[in-house]
Amino acid sequence: MKLRQLEMCLQKVQGFHSPVAELEQYMTPAPLAARLLHEAALAGDIEGMTVVDLGCGTGMLSIGAALLGASVTGVDIDEAALKIARKNAEKFGVDIEWLRMRIDETAEPLSADTVLMNPPFGAQKEHADRPFIDFALLTAPVCYGIFNKGSIPFLEAYTKNTAVITSKTAAMLNIPKQFAFHTKEHLEIPVEIIRLERIS
């Protein structure tokens, strides 16, 4: 599936009804999700692979990966989000396993070929992304994540003994006004799509 076709398809994924600020529930925009998925697919990390989507929300990355031929498990703590994700998957006609669990130091790692994630940036809770990074690298040898621009020095230091960054792509994350503390109708945040490969 071509990038533009995938993006247009993902535009139909329904977002959160009542997003939770503490969980940093922002739907990954279709253009950004499509770009991450397209790059992962070109690298051979999607089609025919087992994929885990951490913090899957309403299923944007999960559904995209399934459309591209992956066997997918979507993981999230929020049952309300998973309920929407199930409906989205039904609408797209894709079979995805949905798993409710909290990503923290007590979480039992899963097993997959590739992890996809748009983890919390830590705006509400400092270092909220770290459990996601740890869990991802325990779960799969390859991880694609969306991180704030400028996060590479942190990621290199944090994963020094566990993984290496093998690719990075600059992108923009569009966040619509959805919480009381938002002052703008839309906020464009520079981000980077990072591919981490576990050191074996």
UniProtKB/TrEMBL annotation:
Keywords: Methyltransferase, Transferase. GO terms for biological process: methylation. Residues 47-127 form the Methyltransferase small domain. It holds the Pfam family MTS. InterPro entries: DNA_methylase_N6_adenine_CS, rRNA_MeTrfase/Polyamine_Synth, SAM-dependent_MTases_sf, Small_mtfrase_dom. SUPFAM superfamilies: S-adenosyl-L-methionine-dependent methyltransferases. One of its GO terms (molecular function) is S-adenosylmethionine-dependent methyltransferase activity. Belongs to the methyltransferase superfamily. PrmA family. This is Methyltransferase-like protein 5.
